[in-house]
Design brief:
Helix content: 25-40%
Strand content: 15-25%
Radius of gyration: 24 Å
Structural class: alpha/beta
Strand order of the largest sheet: 5-4-3-6-7
Largest sheet: 5 strands, mixed
Distance between the termini: 98 Å
Order of helices and strands: HEEEHEHEHEEHH
Number of helices: 6
Number of strands: 7
Shape: extended
């Protein structure tokens, strides 16, 4: 009798596992929240990867595109899907699209070895050893990519690897969308002339 009593907790645990697996299979796996789309890239200062070493130069992720549209790709040398998407990143580089890489929770030497092996598609690689940029961007896993316009605003996001041309096109098309014009200054003489031109 005591033997059967010890099996009851195991039975309950197995039933809960079956329920959890059933629930997770019914969830929509393609749903990925795009919470930052439409917002500015968070200010996150990270060291630049240089010959397998982090730094000494640092750059703010927000200004890494130097006033140009860019794709920010969160990757890691230990990430198998990152290897699968790498040819798509090389294709983006061949098209002249700026791709800024963020090496997420990775050692600089391992990141450099990864790029030496597969090719370096990045305009620059930032080292995010502690995962700060990942937290700021709301990354749920690697790889993830963000299309950022010239104003530093996130215009699209791809969760998971970029495996097809359609995946890449969705990001690059978002970069082509017209951005808001910069505000222009108006002189006092121009304002006065505009007021006089409007009838009372």
């Amino acid at each position: 009798m005591n033997r059967w009593l010890t099996l009851i907790p195991l039975g309950i645990l197995a039933a809960l596992a079956v329920l959890f697996i059933g629930w997770s299979l019914k969830r929509e796996p393609a749903f990925k929240p795009d919470a930052l789309v439409g917002q500015a890239v968070p200010e996150t200062v990270l060291p630049i990867l240089a010959d397998g070493v982090a730094g000494p130069q640092n750059v703010d992720l927000k200004t890494a595109g130097v006033g140009r549209p860019m794709i920010v790709n969160i990757f890691a040398s230990w990430c198998a899907p990152c290897r699968l998407e790498h040819p798509q990143l090389l294709a983006l580089e061949a098209q002249g699209i700026a791709v800024v890489g963020v090496a997420y929770k990775d050692e600089p030497e391992a990141t450099q070895a990864f790029l030496d092996e597969l090719g370096d598609p990045f305009t620059m690689v930032l080292v995010d050893r502690e995962g700060r940029a990942g937290l700021d961007l709301g990354v749920s896993g690697v790889p993830e990519s963000f299309a950022v316009d010239a104003m530093g605003r996130i215009v699209a996001k791809a969760s998971g690897p970029l495996l097809t041309e359609a995946d890449v096109t969705r990001l690059t098309e978002a970069l082509k969308a017209p951005s808001r014009p910069l505000p222009t200054a108006t002189t006092l003489d121009e304002l006065d002339a505009q007021r006089r031109a409007v009838p009372d």
